[in-house]
Design goal:
Elements (H helix, E strand, L loop, with lengths): L6 E2 L6 E4 H11 L4 E4 L6 H9 L3 E4 L3 H15 L3 E5 L3 H16 L3 E7 L2 H5 L10 H5 L5 E4 L6 H13 L5 E7 H5 L1 E3 H7 L14 H13 L3 E5 L1 H5 L3 H11 L3 E3 L19 H7 L2 E5 L27 E6 L13 E4 L2 H12 L8 H22 L8 H14 L4 E5 L2 H9 L8 E3 L9 H12 L3 E6 H5 L5 H6 L4 E7 L28 H7 L3 E5 L2 H14 L3 E6 L16 H8 L1
Parallel strand pairs: 3-4, 3-5, 5-6, 6-8, 7-8, 10-11, 10-12, 12-13, 13-14, 15-16, 15-17, 17-18, 18-20, 19-20
Antiparallel strand pairs: 1-2, 2-9
């Protein structure tokens, strides 16, 4: 290791280092070169020293957004993204992103300064006193506290390995304020640091498990491959493509798996989603979980008669966590291992004479794809007097196709649902969205994280409500001059801007925002470029100019305020609305 900083003890002549520099050196030793965070007591000097040692320190306006940036950096790079926060309130702000990262299997480490243990344990009222380790533990994969400078190397190494090994996730690392100023012999400090070797080793599936899966696939009359974001994270794009093309099995990508194969691929069944989920007799899950996003593998979505019925299907599941198997329905052929190794094993076992799915299954899918795509194109070709989601997204669809290397960040309700179904992706890990929890507020953090770690242009398609959760980070985007184009679908409120106060009182309805807001002026206030677009032509011109310039840009895309539906496609999860419809 090089560049370990030293503090000279003048009286003894012994070269010393301290906790600040040991933390920085431990991260650098493990090829971590970027920190996302927000300076303050007790970590301000740590951010200064990290920058002085050559690390990139991206400072945010709110810790939750810094945490989201770190999480998506982890997803894109397979290295844990680092979020650095102050104690107590700052830690709690970052905790939301940490929990979301764990739920979504994004490798991330939240590092927070904290109060001293002896004061916290006796509840003596220290500055921002909180037992942060205890609070973090239930919400992440692992949590560690370092009390002594000589243990910093071990703490960082354990956090890295925990974040990326097995099923990736969030890790908390607690660093009490007093740790940073502790000193020790520089040579001993250097020797105490650990370079993590093979942090996420391959996990090879058992041969009998592979044979069992191949036997079930071979017997299938209506097979389907379902790709989850774990397939995208695995970076096994060539192997997954080879498996799909060699088997001839149609595939359905979940939203963040779009682009592992181009959405325009002949074997994509995305345009016939409802049909293939209901009719398939065998489903191979690659990096996907049968959670709420897939109706838990049960009910009418899967061809069952009610919400509890499984339907007559066989499931093959690739997952690195054996505990995921049978979590909702019986898995007939569990393949426990990493995606790359499992897909390679299936490919090797197929041999040269593998029979492709029956023609009647493929023809039925193609027929529905053709019908649905034709209807979609007809809808996208319309040009209503006031832009709606479809006419605006027809533009976005063209822009993304013309710029396939750009990363698309997407959040909202209707803005999320329509974009996911309309905008095609052509390369892997180019679509980043709300993921497993379906949360809003990830937008600007994901934009910054993606732009910083990839250097690629970023296009964010945001609902006006979703943007509000992290909108102040447009200043961060401008400060670092990142190539981010934000498009806000502004329909004056949550879902729509048409709700009214039933009492007739002076307060607007809870879902209504200021009418005619000009979000573009917000970007201009920080030196970025703003556009107000009221037609598809204006939106197209603004997006093209933004991509060409690479400047921070925000486009206020005015959408018909009557467009959109309650909660997007998950209206049924709103109890009151669901009850009204049922009755």
């Amino acid at each position: 290791m090089t560049n370990i900083s030293e503090v000279n003890n003048i009286s003894s002549g012994v070269e010393l280092t301290d906790g600040f520099h040991l933390v920085v050196d431990a991260l650098k030793l493990n090829d971590i070169d970027t920190i996302f965070g927000l300076p303050g007591i007790p970590i301000t000097d740590l951010t200064r020293m990290a920058q002085a040692e050559g690390m990139r320190v991206i400072s945010f306006r709110h810790e939750q957004n810094a945490g989201n940036a770190a999480a998506i950096a982890g997803f894109l790079t397979q290295k844990p993204g680092i979020c650095l926060t102050v104690s107590a309130p700052g830690f709690l702000n970052g905790l939301t992103a940490l929990a979301n990262a764990t739920t979504n299997c994004f490798p991330m480490i939240l590092i927070s300064g904290s109060s001293e243990r002896e004061i916290v344990d006796l509840q003596q009222g220290d500055y921002e006193e909180m037992d942060q380790l205890a609070i973090a533990k239930p919400l992440c994969k692992a949590a560690f506290r370092v009390l002594h400078a000589e243990d910093i190397g071990v703490g960082v190494a354990r956090a890295i390995r925990a974040a990326v090994s097995g099923r990736p996730g969030g890790v908390y690392l607690d660093l009490p304020a007093r740790l940073f100023s502790q000193t020790m012999d520089a040579a001993a400090g250097k020797a105490s640091l650990i370079k993590v070797i093979d942090a996420a080793p391959r996990q090879i599936p058992a041969k009998d498990a592979v044979d069992r899966a191949l036997g079930i696939l071979k017997a299938a009359k209506k097979p389907l491959i379902l790709l989850g974001k774990g397939a995208a994270y695995a970076q096994a794009d060539a192997e997954i493509t080879a498996l799909i093309e060699k088997s001839g099995i149609p595939y359905l990508p979940m939203s963040m798996a779009k682009g592992v194969l181009p959405d325009t691929h002949d074997l994509s069944a995305a345009a016939a989603r409802s049909y293939v989920l209901a009719e398939a007799d065998t489903v191979l899950l690659i990096g996907a979980r049968l959670n709420w996003l897939l109706s838990h593998g049960k009910g009418k979505t899967w061809g069952g008669k009610d919400s509890k019925e499984w339907g007559k299907k066989k499931f093959i599941q690739i997952d690195i966590a054996a505990t995921e198997m049978d979590s909702n329905v019986a898995i007939d052929a569990p393949l426990v291992g990493d995606v790359y190794s499992c897909v390679q094993a299936l490919l090797s076992g197929m041999g040269a004479g593998w029979s492709k799915p029956p023609a009647d299954w493929m023809n039925a899918i193609e027929e529905r794809k053709t019908k649905n795509l034709s209807k979609m194109l007809e809808t996208l070709s319309q040009n209503p007097p006031v832009m709606n989601f479809h006419s605006a997204l027809a533009v976005v669809r063209d822009i993304v196709e013309a710029n396939p290397d750009a990363i698309l960040v997407n959040e909202g309700a209707n803005a999320l649902d329509f974009t996911r179904s309309i905008v095609n992706m052509f390369k892997p890990r180019k679509r980043l969205d709300v993921g497993t929890w379906g949360v809003m507020g990830i937008g600007m953090g994901f934009c910054v994280g993606a732009a910083v770690v990839t250097g690629k242009p970023v296009i964010a398609i945001e609902g006006d409500s979703a943007f509000g959760f992290s909108g102040m980070e447009v200043e961060t985007i401008c400060r670092y001059n990142l190539p981010v184009c934000i498009v806000i679908f502004n329909n004056n409120g949550v879902y729509r801007g048409t709700d009214v106060n039933p009492t007739g009182g002076p307060d607007v309805a809870p879902t209504v925002f200021v009418k005619g807001s000009r979000y573009d002026k917000m970007m201009e206030a920080f030196g970025g470029v703003g556009y107000n677009a009221t037609t598809p032509a204006e939106l197209r011109k603004a997006m093209e100019e933004s991509i060409r310039s690479g400047k921070p840009t925000l486009i206020n895309a005015v959408i018909d305020e009557t467009a959109g539906t309650e909660s997007g496609r998950i209206t049924s999860l709103n109890p009151a609305t669901a009850a009204i419809k049922k009755n």
